[in-house]
Design a protein that fits this description.
Helix content: 55-70%
Distance between the termini: 94 Å
Structural class: alpha+beta
Strand order of the largest sheet: 1-2-3-5-4
Mean pLDDT: 77
Number of strands: 5
Number of helices: 11
Strand content: 5-15%
Oligomer: single chain
Largest sheet: 5 strands, mixed
Number of domains: 3
């Protein structure tokens, strides 16, 4: 087993070296730090550096390495092309830059002992810039491999032509490339951390929105249970009293009424248990109070005025005679809208209009721009639940209504909702209770 393991390690070592030297530079999976904006900034810097390198490199090779301006210009252009190519084709860019730099060192000799060799100053600049651009998207082992490749190429040149340099001449580029590699790794690591942080914030915001939605739905469920429980109680009372209120009820019908009342009581008991569980999740104060409706809007508007908002209320139509679910939703919509005005538009004026039409209840809350900068204030009514527009949309969608929330051109905000009303049932004849029946 040990021999097999050793063979596998020996076979994996060439594969790892090949990946570091060649494969990791093919199609880097690491994006540029900073996203598209970072890529645009890096592209501008690379082109500026390329223009600078064109003039400086030509003068450097012509004046310090005994080349004519024509060959010096051609070799300088050969160094610029890989630098620009590194933005999109890292592997050919790096190997072309390395080959061109080695070729320049092999074809040139310094005009004086004071000039560095084998690496000219502009060659150091071109190699460092190319390694930096490629390293921003390459793996760490690829960066290390590039650094070792430059060190190996310099060692071969210093060994073949010792009279023009020496081993000490390799030190500056080796140190500069090492610093560049460490810097690139740090920049890329920072970009990775920022990307992960942005992703975590995005996921956190999504989870918070989902939790708010679920919490608001639970709140709506609690309130609807109150409404449904009321109707179930009415059904129970009517079924129990039907044999005494209706004349000539047959024994079979009376038994049927009794079964209806029993099932209604059983359902009501189950509903109360579930309602108790829902309420006990948070157990806020006042949770067991009767659910509000449009008749409570004047008190709500007055509370809003005391909070510093000039609020006005207009009630049109018979808004008091509404289905419980519609009335409760209308109250909650106005409550949440006014709370948002107090929190986010201090000093603004709020106009509340509730109008009952033949087939729907129209609710509108419009506020003017804030008269003063935002400040932290308490909501209109301290309460659990309530998550702004999320809760409003959920309530209106529950009733198959229409909801709109939009910013106004002059700086205010408008919230409107249309809550459908059930059709009015036809009047039924009134039955006169018998006087001969006994309980």
């Amino acid at each position: 087993m040990k021999i097999i393991s050793s063979d596998r390690r020996l076979r994996s070592l060439p594969a790892a070296l090949g990946a570091a030297v060649w494969g990791d530079l093919a199609r880097p999976s690491i994006p540029f730090p900073g996203g598209p904006r970072g890529h645009r900034t890096l592209t501008a810097v690379v082109w500026l550096l390329a223009v600078t390198l064109y003039f400086a490199g030509t003068l450097d090779l012509a004046q310090h390495y005994s080349l004519g301006y024509g060959p010096a210009m051609a070799l300088t252009v050969a160094r610029i092309v890989p630098l620009v190519l590194a933005l999109s084709r890292p592997r050919p860019a790096w190997w072309t830059q390395l080959v061109v730099t080695v070729a320049i060192a092999a074809l040139t000799r310094p005009s004086s002992p004071a000039e560095p060799w084998p690496w000219a100053v502009t060659s150091v600049l071109a190699l460092t810039a190319t390694l930096t651009v490629v390293g921003l998207r390459a793996s760490r082992r690829a960066i290390l491999a590039m650094w070792l490749e430059v060190l190996a190429a310099g060692a071969v040149l210093a060994a073949l032509v010792p009279q023009h340099g020496g081993w000490y001449a390799l030190l500056p580029l080796t140190v500069i490339l090492a610093v560049a590699a460490v810097t690139v790794n740090a920049v890329r690591s920072r970009g990775d951390v920022q990307a992960r942080l942005a992703l975590a914030e995005e996921r956190g915001a999504a989870e918070e929105a989902r939790a708010s939605l679920l919490q608001e739905r639970a709140r709506i469920a609690r309130e609807l249970h109150d409404v449904v429980a009321h109707h179930m109680s009415v059904i129970t009372v009517q079924a129990d009293s039907a044999p005494y209120r209706v004349a000539d009820v047959s024994p079979g019908a009376a038994e049927e009424f009794g079964a209806i009342a029993a099932e209604a009581r059983r359902s009501l008991a189950e509903m109360r248990r579930l309602l108790h569980v829902l309420r006990n999740e948070e157990s806020p104060d006042g949770e067991n109070t009767p659910q509000p409706g449009p008749q409570d809007l004047p008190a709500l508007v007055e509370t809003t005025r005391r909070a510093g908002v000039e609020a006005r209320l207009e009630l049109a139509g018979q808004v008091e005679d509404l289905p419980a679910a519609v009335g409760l939703s209308a109250y909650r919509l106005v409550q949440e809208a006014l709370s948002n005005v107090v929190r986010h538009a201090p000093g603004a004026r709020a106009d509340v209009r509730v109008r009952q039409a033949a087939d729907a209840l129209h609710v509108s809350v419009v506020n003017s721009p804030p008269a003063q900068p935002r400040r932290a204030v308490e909501p209109v009514e301290p309460r659990a639940g309530g998550h702004g527009l999320v809760g409003m949309r959920e309530r209106v969608a529950m009733l198959d209504g229409e909801f709109t929330a939009e910013a106004l051109a002059e700086g205010g905000f408008r919230v409107t909702a249309v809550l459908p009303l059930p059709p009015v049932p036809a009047p039924t004849p009134t039955l006169t209770p018998t006087t001969s029946g006994t309980p």
